[in-house]
Amino acid sequence: MTTAVLLPSTESPLSHESAAEAFEAILDGKASEEAIITFLIGLTERGETSIEIAEAARAMRHRMVPIDAPAGAIDVCGTGGDGHHTLNVSTAVSLVVAAAGVPVAKHGNRAASSKAGAADTLEALGLDMARAGAMAEQTLADIGIAFLFAGNHHPAIRRIHPIRQKIGRRTIFNLMGPLANPAHVERQLIGIARPDYAPLYAEALESLGATAAAVISGEEELDEISIAGPTRVVRIGSVALPDRITPADARLPASPLDSIRGGDPAHNALALRRLLAGEESAYRDAVLLNAAAALVIADKVSDLADGAVLAANTIDSGAARRLLDAWIAYA
Q: Binding positions for Mg(2+) 2 (predicted)?
């Protein structure tokens, strides 16, 4: 009988070594369920450090199923769990940015706390998620976009899913998705619903090798750049974004968050189709704003205003709609 690994006390911040050993034991099934629950709750109650966040992500990266990506590929995603139930902004942004010529390795999942996650909405749009997952590396190389379904690339995380359900509250693993992209992207726009955590999260991301990225958090505790008000920005590398973004920075109007409230996958898919058809709306403005930031990170444009113009032209020319249709047909 194998003796379960003892996990360290969480009363004090963990060193790189002790954090690495702890998360390796958790993901490899070497610690008991009771010890894992105590450990994860302890981290949450004390508040995770950048070292602990980075080592948890590094342990996941070492166990994931990776894919190759073209140079300059980017990911645009959020940690989720902000409770605002907005339409799928980062999913639409991914299509617009890819259609503008930047390869997008979109890492995502089904809904956890919202009604429609990226995978749910893409499936409602007609994308065969199983086939899209199997062909992710090929579609990324050929048409510049892929959806990396988390469950396909992180088999180790499945082991602790029942434990996380038992805990029934946020743990460090709720922060992991954007830090463990299977394509090893070095450029990212990451939304986090906790403005106070943005600097810690950025420290972790930088230590994991990001070269050009931004961690963003709307003042409403929103995991994307807010169309309603200011958004905090923490930059990594020489990214030409301000420390604080408002819609006016991209020459866009502000709108209340209720104006981009989403629904079930069918509702969100219809809104995205209307967006790609050129419909004017607060949803379009939110997508233009976030796409503009991603295009700055990708070195495609020099500032948010130019990024919003490029994003609008990409939609209005039909390029983003054609990319979605090509992706559905391809996969």
A: 223-224
For residues 4 and 244, the model is more confident at 244
| Contact in structure between 181 and 105 (CB atoms under 8 Å) | yes
Question: Does the annotation list 10 as a binding residue?
Answer: no
Query: For the chain, what are the domain ranges?
Result: 74-151+171-330
Confidence label for 194 from pLDDT (cuts 50, 70 and 90): confident
Whether 86 has a binding-site annotation, put simply, is: yes
Is 50 within any annotated ligand binding site? no
- Whose structure tokens read 């070497």? 30
Which residues, 6+ apart, have CB-to-CB distance to 272 below 8 Å?
A: 87, 88, 91, 92, 121, 125
Q: Is 78 annotated as a binding residue?
A: yes
**Beta 231-236 vs 212-218: how paired, if at all?**
antiparallel
- Longest CA–CA separation in the chain, Å: 65
Q: Is 203 annotated as belonging to a binding site?
A: no
| pLDDT band for position 114 (cuts 50, 70, 90) | low
89 in a known ligand binding site: yes
Q: Per the annotation, does 223 bind a ligand?
A: yes
Tell me what the pLDDT averaged over the chain comes to.
Answer: 93
Q: Residue 262: is its pLDDT beyond 70?
A: yes
Ligand-binding site membership of 90 (annotated): yes
Q: Is 81 annotated as a binding residue?
A: yes
pTM score, two decimals? 0.94
State the number of CA atoms in the 13 A half-sphere of 216 facing the CB. 32
Q: Is 113 annotated as a binding residue?
A: yes
Residue 309 in contact with residue 257, Cβ under 8 Å? no
Q: Give the tens place of pLDDT for each residue, 203-234.
A: 999 999 999 999 999 999 999 999 999 999 99
Task: For residues 76-94, give the mean pLDDT.
Answer: 85
171 annotated binding-site participant: no
Q: Is 88 annotated as a binding residue?
A: yes
- Find out whether 118 is annotated in a ligand binding site: yes
Does domain 74-151+171-330 fall under CATH 3.40.1030.10? My reply is yes
pLDDT band with cut points at 50, 70 and 90 for residue 82 = low
